[in-house]
Structures are given as C-alpha cells and as structure tokens.
Amino acid sequence: MIRVYKSPNAPRSLSITQAYNGEDVLRQLENDHYKKCYLCERSLCTDFQVEHLKSQKNFPDLKQDWNNLFWSCGYCNEKKGNNFNNLLDPSVVNIEEEIKQVLNFLQKQAVFTSLAETDAHKETCQFLTKIHNGRNGLRTKREENFFEQVMGIVNDFYRLINQYLDNPTEENKALVKENLQISKECLGFKYWIIKNNATLYSIFANDIVWNKQ
Ligand SMILES: [Zn+2]
To answer: Which residues sit opposite 72 in a β-bridge?
Structure first.
C-alpha cells in the first residue's frame, strides 16, 4: 500500500445524483489509481469497486464524499466490509514511508511494521496483515490464491533485481526502473526491497518516489 494521488475536483455526478459510483467517478478513480486497488495494489480489469475509506454504514454522510472514495478490488473491499474505519488515508499520508512492507518467502508471510505509533497506523498494519496472511496466519483457498498472486508479482521483481546485480548493464537497470513505475503492482513491497539494500538504494532511490510522473 502506498500513497495515492486523487484529482482535486470531485466528479460532477457526486453533487447532482444520489450515486457514489457514477461513470465519471469510476473513470476518474481508475485514472487516479492507475487501475490499481489502493489496498493491495494489484491491477484491476473488471473486478473493481468503489471503496469507502470510512464505511457507508458507519459514516453515511461520507457516502458521496470524493475524499472518501477509492478504487479497490472485490477481495479487499469484502475483507474491509464495515470495519477498519480508522485506516491511514492514502491520499494524505506517505504510507510507503510510514509502514514497512516486507514479504517473507520462506515463511509465506507478509510483515507490516508501523514506524509510527498512532491507532491509524496500527489498524492499517492489522488490515494489511489480514488480507495477506488470513486469520491467525491460516489462509482460506481464496486468501491463498491472493497471496500467491502477490508473491508472484514480487518474485518477478526479485528476478529483475538479481539479473541486474549479476549483470549490471544499462538495459537491465532500465528493466528494474520500469518495474518501479507508478502504474506497476505491489510497489509497497518493491520500495522496501530497494530501501533495505544499500547498494540498490544508492542506484534506485529516485525511482521509489510515489508520485513521480
Ligand atoms: Zn485489493
């Protein structure tokens, strides 16, 4: 999970209809989020939903509030449900800097460590742990498929990194850089792979800035 950019102007249908998911909202969110779920950062084709950062049930006044609407996958939207109403707002907070995001391939666990002590940081880590690791570390079939997909994406990135470290040509460097572009998936994990390695950080520090355009 990383920071996202939201266009400042709310789509018009939010003020002239009762709906929160008009075509203009869908198009604007898709564009702002580079077609990625704001929670798991997987790219979405058809399984997209408009997600309320603060749930409709608990915050009915925010149902059509543009600042409360995000682009999400069905998996994450369902996991969140009406709970987790105190997540960090990714349009305001640099989540990739405040939550350390690491995949442990041996133990098949995602580990989220907050670098700040607020309830929102804690709740965000809890939610991310839930969607990646399941309940008490046990995954249902659906959770297992989700995690395998995330591992596959991060694993592909490791292959590019290793290819570059083994053979540090400009071409191989460009492949790593391309995989760090804002439209790519699972950047939270990828950014921390770079940050946790001094050599990689010295080369790719400028490529792990969330809003580079
Ligand atoms: Zn998702």
So the answer is: 49
